[in-house]
Structures are given as C-alpha cells and as structure tokens.
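Weekly modeling sync, notes
Attendees: S.R. (lead), two postdocs, one rotation student

Agenda item 3: backlog of single-chain predictions. S.R. asked that every request posted to the team notebook include the full sequence so nobody has to chase files. The rotation student volunteered to paste the first one in as an example of the format we agreed on. Action items at the bottom.

Example entry:
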Amino acid sequence: QVQLVESGGGLVQAGGSLRLSCAASGSIFSINTMAWYRQAPGKQRESVAVITSGGSTNYADSVKGRFTISRDNAKNTVYLQMNSLKPEDTAVYYCWATITTVTTVVSRTRAYWGQGTQVTVSS
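Predicted structure, as returned to the notebook:
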C-alpha cells in the first residue's frame, strides 16, 4: 500500500512564505511525475505545479515566479516552496504522484493523492 503524507500548511500573512512537503511511503518501485494541486472553497481543484522524474517543471500562471516545486528522489519527497503569498492562494493543497509498485507477480502504475493540507493567507 502506498501513502502520500503532506505537511507544512498553516496560517500566514500576505507576503509571507510556506514550504509544503509530501512524502511517499510503501512498496514503491519508482515515482514518476509528482505535482501539487489546490482547491479553494467553492472552486474546482486545480494544478499548481508539476515536476517530472527528470526534473522538468511546469507551473500555473497564477503562481509563476512565486512558487517553486522540487523533489528529493532519495527521500521519495516533493516540496512546494511558496513565497509572496496572496490571500487568493488560500486553499487545501494536495500532493499527487504516479507511482509504480511491484510485487512478485505484477507491476502496476497508478496515481495517488495525499490527504491535503490547509494553507490560509490573511490579508
């Protein structure tokens, strides 16, 4: 069984910074693409930042220049450094990853979600 566990959310004033972490654990053979999504109250979940296994990144226009996604493959962990936070960044942030697991008889690749961590930015 694979789990993604986020940490690092909280309450911060506008202009402040937070760093989110997401650690994957379980019977992991490899982790492919990793990403952060967010969902604000009354809105659809949206992609914030993506990082491939090779380190290529992509960001939503609303966070470019302020957020940085990175990963530590040795620790099976993805990070989201969030700077110059704005009230509109307030949301539950979810970690997402495509992970390959291997047993004695089968290899399987599927997407996993974390449980989410609340980020609140006050004005």
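Discussion: group reviewed the output briefly. The first strand starts at residue 3 and ends at 7.
Action items: rotation student to repeat for the remaining queue; S.R. to check formatting next week.
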